[in-house]
Specification:
mainly beta; six-stranded mixed β-sheet; about 10% helix; globular
């Protein structure tokens, strides 16, 4: 026959080995793949509140398309700009380890993509899973250019909570009947506060409490006796929001794509930039009712705001046994939200947020600190004459122009990208590295308002050696009114180790810090008239933006940037820029 027993055995061994190799390679392939998306930036006519206008969109959709990937995946997202505006896209909360060129804030990590041009955002999702989002990062274009970015766990890795029957992204937004670009441009010219939005939206829809909007209502259809995972994202420009579903309890399980110790609540608070995953357990039987889910602002400042409420409808799918009445005839329950200025609810809510801190999902809080920093954040003013004729009065406080600052530095955006200037060693004339580690003139930060509200202006950055562990206290001020500021740090997650009201006390307050299981986030609310302390490890080389996520405050200068230097090892260095990086 020519086939010996021995060669048969060898053949089977070889066959088994090749099958195993195939299985392993397909396992690895399943573990991480490259996903391609194309974002065509185009104008689209959209109607809300009986008002039709042309808006900037991705692929003609409002809100934009959902990106879904798994932990470990590589994303290649080609953005092609077909509109007159310059554009850039930020992948909010993605760490961008060594891939700062893909982070997206215009004039920080890249020049914007100009009309007719394109750019491929290329990054890998390392050690992250959960709900994040993407949005335009130039002027106020994110009012219409935004969408969910959902990172599923690695294949076969379970959630640390009950597997939901269904997952639903819910993204809050703001709608202006006017063009938001014209709104902010006019405000920056006059020095006054910008006009507020005309509505809040849920998944782009204002809902039945607004004029002419009953048909534009988000409906969440559910079955009785099931668990749903709601992925909540606050994409509003200028408002922190309370959210609740009538007669239902929500269980918080994740914030900013980091698992937390689960807790139940009727209402959540979510600031612009933040995400929160909640489990919604539906009623065991058909309830013979429908339920409103509503969101409205939490307000702390003195300025005007959009005092309205967005509503969606939670609708149970009737089984044939229960469908006694058409849905429209069923009683409609409304939730009770906290008062607009209910800071005590907010304080209690955020104090419940703790990292899961299990062996699988540890809270790696820096225990030693290399660099202690103290930054004041708040409003201020610039003299009118800087941009206007000196004989003209501006519409800001006492005839000045509104400004905002960190350590009294109102950040001036450069005309070229900071990351390119840093990488090429040509920072001269673009930025200086002397951002102050604390206010140059200490004062009673949360005391009576000051007479002198002027801010300094400049493009100042803070340099951190690779792997520096940083403790940063963000102190709100009462200059032109105490206000809550949701601060977002690009390129890092940080641990919220402490917070309080009044002025931070260096001698007493650190003794109360939570260094065991503090919540880990990328965006944190600095309490109105108070402070928050965060810790992070500067293990990601590049230039990283930090700013208030209330867009009006960012426009006024409440922003700065960090330069994190390369480490010594090859895997601690920023990769070189891609060949298609846009030019200014």
């Amino acid at each position: 026959m020519g086939f010996s027993i021995l060669s048969l055995q060898a053949f089977f061994r070889l066959f088994l080995l090749s099958v195993l190799t195939l299985c392993l390679s397909s396992e690895l392939a399943a573990a991480s793949i490259t996903k391609h998306y194309k974002f065509e930036i185009k104008l689209q006519n959209v109607t809300r509140l009986c008002h039709t206008k042309s808006i900037v969109t991705v692929n003609g959709k409002f809100p934009g398309p959902r990106i879904v990937a798994r932990e470990g995946d590589n994303l290649l997202i080609k953005v092609v700009n077909h509109v007159p505006n310059n554009i850039s896209i930020h992948w909010h909360g993605i760490r961008q380890l060594r891939s700062g060129w893909a982070d997206g804030p215009a004039y920080v990590t890249q020049c914007p993509i100009q009309t007719g041009n394109s750019y491929v955002y290329n990054y890998t999702i390392v050690g992250q899973r959960g709900t994040l989002w993407w949005h335009a990062h130039l002027s106020w274009l994110r009012s219409t250019v935004y969408g969910p970015l959902i990172i599923l766990p690695k294949r076969g890795a379970p959630y640390p909570f009950i597997k939901p029957y269904k997952e639903v992204p819910i993204i809050f937004g703001e709608w202006w009947n006017a063009d938001p670009e014209a709104v902010i441009n006019q405000a920056l010219q006059t020095g006054g506060g910008p006009n507020v939005s005309d509505a809040y939206t849920i998944n782009g829809l204002p809902g039945p409490l607004y004029n002419c909007s009953a048909k534009d209502t988000f409906k969440l259809k559910v079955q009785a006796g099931k668990t749903y995972l709601l992925r909540l994202i606050n994409g509003a420009l200028n408002d922190e929001l309370f959210f609740s579903i009538a007669n239902h309890t929500l269980k918080v399980v994740e914030t900013d794509a980091v698992y937390v110790k689960p807790f139940k609540t009727n209402t959540i608070l979510i600031t612009p930039g933040q995400t929160t995953n909640v489990l919604l357990k539906t009623k065991p039987n058909f309830p013979n009712a429908t339920f409103l889910m509503t969101a409205r602002p939490y307000v702390t400042g003195l300025g005007t705001f959009d005092n309205s409420t967005v509503a969606g409808i939670l609708e149970y799918e009737a089984t044939t046994l229960h469908s006694t009445l058409p849905t429209k005839k069923l009683p409609l329950h409304k939730p009770i939200l906290p008062a607009l200025n209910d800071t005590s609810f907010v304080t209690k809510f955020v104090s419940k947020l703790r990292s899961l801190n299990t062996p699988q999902f540890p809270a790696n809080v820096p225990q030693k600190v290399d660099k202690h920093l103290f930054f004041t954040v708040g409003l201020g003013s610039n003299p009118c004459s800087q941009q206007q004729n000196s004989n003209q009065t501006c519409q800001g406080p006492n005839g000045t122009m509104f400004a905002a600052s960190i350590n009294n530095v109102s950040f001036t955006m450069p005309t070229t990208a900071l990351l390119q200037s840093h990488f090429s060693g040509q920072s001269k004339g673009v930025y200086s590295s002397n951002f102050p580690i604390s206010p140059l003139t200490p004062f009673n930060y949360t005391g009576p308002p000051l007479n002198n509200t002027n801010v300094g202006n400049g493009t100042k950055l803070m340099v951190l050696p690779f792997n520096t562990s940083v403790e940063l206290v963000l102190q709100g001020t009462s200059i032109l009114g105490a206000e809550s500021h949701p601060l977002h740090l690009h390129g890092f997650n940080f641990f919220v180790v402490g917070q309080g009201f009044g002025n931070f006390d260096q001698n007493k307050d650190p003794k109360k810090f939570n260094l065991v299981d503090p919540v880990e986030r990328n965006t944190v609310g600095v309490p109105s008239g108070g402070w928050v302390a965060i810790r992070f490890l500067a293990d990601n080389p590049g230039v990283w933006f930090m700013h208030c996520h209330l867009e009006v405050h960012t426009s006024w200068g409440l922003k700065m940037a960090w330069v994190v230097l390369d480490g010594k090892l090859p895997n601690q260095k920023l990769l070189p820029p891609p060949s298609d990086l846009p030019t200014c």
